[in-house]
């Protein structure tokens, strides 16, 4: 609970809000569990790379751990190619 509260404060999410961001809550819990599994050396080799990815704070900060700056670049390229086709 302490780690969940820390993440809520870090990312400005009110965990007591009536309309709680459930996507954030799921990502935060996945992050917390991944860190615990890595610390306790659980999950085996086949899951280790997935757990390492989930254990990064970017998993909580960005929807599904995706870096949105890369998405903006791709959208810009798509818009440019669409504009050139007209």
Beta content: under 5%
Number of domains: 1
Strand/helix succession: HHHHH
Our count of helices gives: 5
Report the major sheet: none
The secondary-structure class comes to mainly alpha
In short:
The protein is mainly α and 86 residues long.
Overview of the structural elements:
With 86 residues, the chain is mostly helical. It has one domain (2-74). The chain is 70% helix and 0% strand. The chain has five helices and no strands. The protein has helices at residues 2-10, 22-39, 44-54, 58-61, 68-85. α1 crosses α2 and α2 (22-39) crosses α3. The longest helix is centred in the middle third of the chain and has 18 residues, at 22-39. The radius of gyration is 17 Å and the shape is globular. The model is unreliable at 73-86 (pLDDT under 50).
Task: Tell me the layout of helices and strands.
Layout: H1 2-10, H2 22-39, H3 44-54, H4 58-61, H5 68-85
Helix pairs in contact: 1-2, 2-3
Q: What characteristics describe this protein?
A:
70% helix; mainly alpha; 86 residues; 5 helices
């Amino acid at each position: 609970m302490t780690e969940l509260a820390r993440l809520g404060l870090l990312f400005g999410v009110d965990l007591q809000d009536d309309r709680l961001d459930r996507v954030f809550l799921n990502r935060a819990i996945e992050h917390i569990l991944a860190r615990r599994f890595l610390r306790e050396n659980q999950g085996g080799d086949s899951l280790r790379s997935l757990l390492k990815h989930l254990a990064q704070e970017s998993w909580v900060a960005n929807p599904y751990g995706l870096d949105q700056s890369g998405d903006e670049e791709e959208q810009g390229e798509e818009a440019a190619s669409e504009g050139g086709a007209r």
